[in-house]
Amino acid sequence: MPITPTSKIWMSGEFVDWNDARIHVLNPTLHYGWGVFEGIRAYETADGPAVFRLTDHIARLYRSAKIYVMEPPFTQDQVVAATKETIAVNDIASCYIRPLVYLGYGEMGLNPLPSPVEVMIAVWPWGAYLGEEAEANGVRAMISSWKRNDPNITPPAAKASGQYLNSSLAKVAAVKAGYDEAILTSPNGHIADGTGENVFIVSGRKVITPLLTDGPLGGITRASIMQIAADQGYEVVEQHIVRTDLYLADEAFFTGTAAEIVPIVSVDDRQVGTGKPGPVTRELLEIFHRATRGELERYRSWNELVGG
């Protein structure tokens, strides 16, 4: 999806013009993928722009940085404040937010430790990641032949730049085969996640998602939906899922910051449930959207006001 430029990008404590936000071609992150990032959204609410679970996202960013032996030169609170300031400077009410912790120019080679650590934050308006019709009509998915990373090869617990080559390979294969999205399995054959989303299935009153030990990223939207489903009286279960569980589920859906909540209507050309977005998915989706807009007191703490 094309990016619509905004005015300013925050780079290590300073605002620079969008077109001047540059790095050197010998930046080691460019060559080796040694960086960690987040995807976050801000929504327009009655009280002004609010970032959905911003503090939780930045905490995960710092966990990813720790896994990759990176020490950002800013505290988590400073990055939270800088994120809000970037939204305010760009005068944007609803946007996608991309913080990135990366290596600075000056060193080259497979040892990243001598390189300085930099941080940048960009914001821009961004619509539905899987397409405007995906939420209403659902998407067609395939089980990818590409496996999710083994935790002892590259740790899937981190949201790291280079690891997304794995997701991109699966995404390209799915799109070229005529599907909307791919679902990856762990090395042991269990369902892990989509290329940029977590996976859920619904079976009766159970809302089920893979264990984190099977390789999915610990999604912030995933955690939010698990909380919402539990509050609605569903039994929320983390367990091993195999591909046939997806075929036989009553419903299935993706969750993620970019995708938000998207029904899965078929997997490997097997219709999931009725082949249309199901009632449980619809219920959770509606509550999630109301939560992101600050309309529900129960989840008000998730809305971190830009001007607050």
SSE layout and pairings?
Elements (H helix, E strand, L loop, with lengths): L7 E4 L2 E4 L10 H5 L2 E3 L2 E6 L2 E5 L1 H14 L8 H14 L5 E9 L13 E8 L9 H4 L1 E5 L20 H13 L4 E5 L5 E4 L3 E6 L2 E4 L10 H12 L3 E4 L4 H6 L2 E6 L3 E8 L2 E2 L7 H14 L10 E3 L3
Parallel strand pairs: 8-9, 8-15, 12-13
Antiparallel strand pairs: 1-2, 1-7, 3-6, 4-5, 4-6, 5-17, 6-7, 9-10, 11-12, 11-14, 14-15, 15-16
Helix pairs in contact: 2-3
Describe what this molecule looks like in 3D:
With 308 residues, this protein is α+β, with helices and mostly antiparallel strands. The chain has 2 domains: 117 residues, D-amino Acid Aminotransferase, Chain A, domain 1 (2-Layer Sandwich), CATH 3.30.470.10; 159 residues, D-amino Acid Aminotransferase, Chain A, domain 2 (Alpha-Beta Barrel), CATH 3.20.10.10. The chain is 27% helix and 28% strand. The protein contains 8 helices and 17 strands. Strands 8, 9, 10, 11, 12, 13, 14, 15 and 16 form a 9-stranded mixed sheet that branches. Strands 1, 2, 3, 4, 5, 6, 7 and 17 form an 8-stranded antiparallel sheet that branches. Helix 2 packs across helix 3. The two termini are 31 Å apart.
